[in-house]
Write a structure and sequence with these properties.
The protein has 618 residues and is α+β, with helices and mostly antiparallel strands. Helices cover 30% and strands 22% of the residues. It binds aspartic acid. Aspartic acid binds next to strand 21 and strand 22.
Length: 618
């Protein structure tokens, strides 16, 4: 006999009179001592009320029914009837109930650490660690089941779109060799080759490029990537990407294909029609928003007021402006003065907040942040007001000031002032409530392609050049010559080279990043050289890539979407752990399986590894 004939979300009035079998978890029970026991039976599909009527059962059976507790697993057989106690409009099955004729306990539960109830027992969800340890209970919550099924729908929509567009889904190795994508890697010792190690891939970057050399033309993979970095609310050491690569394409074609994907995905996931996605050059993003992934849902744009500031007597402006004055505009080490106008800020921003902004920008390396208010008479007030009086009209014009506004200023080197104001802009937006709740279905969804990134930037710690995307990103077509001929010591030229990279930004979050790749071995070698690798080091690490590029490589380019982040947007959570079935904690632990765990001496010996770890004493 079947364990069940229907699921718990299936029965409707049309089933009245039918004999059915249901199975699931006891979601709630009410034994009123009236000779009736009501059970809400739950499975992935919903909840159905089942009724044990004392008149139809012997006392022993009723006693058993009366002893059922939340999360026991049972199967019942019975007849569907109209719900005698009246409809429950909260349930899709709420018009009917099943009067039980037979039942069986399939799995009795021990007392539970918590109940899988979305509203939480007592109004609050159990602590995240407890839920992590008993993930299988937490995953029973309808909200978690919804997330798992949304994620599943996202996989299916993705695969359909790329299949329709001729992409081949190809798996690439997990046991791999180091890739220099910036993050620390996870290492796996080899037993067969003593003293050697695999690295888990930070992404399948080189494999997908080599698949293009192999003639695969269009590749996709929903793949796992590993980066041994500290997890954050929106980052896990082990995460999933939708990884893509195309041959014989220019930047615009990759972007069009991806725009089509975004449009399809949003339509499939929440019926939203994504309007044409604007393209914004990196420089414009940095100038207007101070960040390469601007949140364009609100204004608070940044304005460079260096020219006006130069005409004041304020030493904190003019001294900054004298720094690097011979460098080109936008050069990271040229002094600038930038400002943000906060409409209505005089009222919305308390003194405490504006004082706090001074400290806030300092944490991004800026010297500080000055603030002035525009009073009702249209005069500057407080802070540095007296220094601004001589240039009042010009400032009003460039910033579009109105009575009641506040202006925040930062004077510093271009890179520092831009970064500090970019962060400050977001903080102010949070402080005055300009950011809409994320992910509410239907938006607001603000998409943006950011293009024309610099190829290289200086690493903050070592001062060395690093690739802004990754070292396989090509210069933009019209920059290739300048790059090939550039002197690697010519800092200003190197900083000005623009790449063929692109990011997709959604509401201030990078959801995808990619580029046209270098397919010329000489250009690739020059990038390695600039990044400080000797030809020997480059060969040792990447001989396979350099060789592949020398055996007939097509022009190619691609992108990768962060799948977990996409799901977070669709289900409206800011916690990446919510969208991964078995996530890790902030310290990279799996609380359910207790990974990572100790290896035995024998296991270590097998792989020729000795532990130098000394457990803490005491
Ligand atoms: N491999 C890159 C990343 O993981 C994406 C790409 O360039 O396609 O960020």
């Amino acid at each position: 006999m079947l364990i069940r004939t229907h699921n718990c979300g299936q029965l409707r009035e049309t089933n009245i009179g039918a004999t059915v079998r249901l199975a699931g978890w006891v979601n709630a029970y009410r034994g009123h001592g009236t000779g009736l026991v009501f059970i809400d039976l739950r499975d992935r599909y919903g909840v159905t009320q089942v009724v044990f009527d004392g008149e139809q059962h012997d006392p022993d059976t009723m006693k058993l029914a009366d002893h059922l507790r939340n999360e026991d697993v049972i199967a019942v057989e019975g007849t569907v009837r109209i719900r005698v106690g009246g409809e429950n409009p909260k349930l899709v099955t709420g018009k009917v109930e099943v009067v039980v004729s037979k039942f069986e306990v399939l799995g009795k539960t021990d007392p539970l650490p918590f109940l899988p109830d979305d509203s939480g027992s007592g109004g609050k969800l159990a602590n995240e660690d407890i839920r992590g340890k008993y993930r299988y209970i937490d995953l029973r919550r309808p909200a978690m089941q919804h997330i798992l099924s949304s994620r599943h729908r996202l996989y299916q929509s993705t695969r359909r779109y790329f299949d329709e567009n001729g992409f081949l889904e190809i798996e690439t190795p997990i046991l791999y060799k180091s890739t220099p994508e910036g993050a620390r890697e996870f290492l796996v010792p080899s037993r067969n080759v003593p003293g050697s190690w695999y690295a888990l891939p930070q992404s399948p970057q080189l494999f997908k490029q080599i698949l293009m050399v192999a003639g695969c033309d269009r590749y996709m993979q929903i793949c796992r990537c590993f980066r041994d970095e500290d997890p954050r609310a929106d980052r896990q050491a082990e995460f999933t990407q939708i990884d893509l690569e195309m041959s014989f394409v220019r930047r615009e074609q990759v972007m069009e294909m991806m725009e089509g994907f975004v449009r399809r995905l949003w339509k499939d996931m929440c019926g939203y029609d994504v309007p044409p996605i604007p393209r914004m050059p990196y420089r414009e993003a940095m100038e207007r928003f101070g960040i390469d992934r601007p949140d364009t849902r609100y204004g608070l744009e940044i304005t460079d007021i260096s020219e006006v500031a130069a005409r004041t007597d304020a030493a904190f402006f003019t001294e900054t402006l004298a720094k690097g004055a011979d460098r080109p505009r936008f050069n990271s080490k040229r002094g600038v003065v930038k400002a943000i106008r906060i409409p209505g800020g005089a009222e919305k921003l308390t003194r405490k907040l504006t004082d706090g902004y001074h400290e806030f920008v300092r944490s991004f390396g800026a010297g500080g942040c000055a603030a002035v208010k525009v009073n009702a008479q249209g005069d500057f007030e407080t802070g540095i007001a007296k220094f601004l009086a001589p240039v009042k009209n010009e400032l009003f014009a460039v910033l579009g000031l109105r009575p009641g506004d506040t202006v925040l200023f930062v004077a510093d080197l271009y890179a520092v002032a831009t970064k500090a104001l970019g962060e400050l802009r977001q903080k102010v937006a949070r402080d005055i409530g300009l950011i809409p709740k994320p992910g509410s279905e239907g938006g607001p969804w603000n998409f943006l392609f950011v293009i024309d990134f610099p190829m290289f930037e200086r690493d903050k710690e070592s001062g060395r050049w690093i690739a802004m995307h990754h070292p396989f990103t090509a210069p933009r077509d019209d920059q290739a010559d300048a790059f090939v001929h550039a002197d690697v010591n010519d800092e200003i030229t190197i900083e000005s080279i623009v790449s063929a990279g692109y990011d997709i930004v959604l509401n201030g979050q990078e959801i995808a990043g990619g580029s046209i790749r270098i397919h010329d071995r000489t250009v690739q070698s020059k990038v390695f050289q600039l990044l400080g690798m000797t030809p020997e080091q480059a060969r040792e690490k990447f001989s396979f890539l350099l060789e592949a590029l020398s055996y007939g490589a097509p022009p190619h380019g691609g992108i990768a979407f962060g799948l977990d982040r996409l799901v977070m947007n669709f289900v409206g959570t800011a916690n990446i752990r919510d969208v991964i079935a078995f996530p890790k904690t902030q310290t990279g632990q799996d609380l359910m399986t207790s990974a990572p765990s100790k290896a035995t001496d024998e296991q270590l010996r097998d792989v020729f590894v000795k532990s130098t770890h000394e457990p803490p004493r005491g």
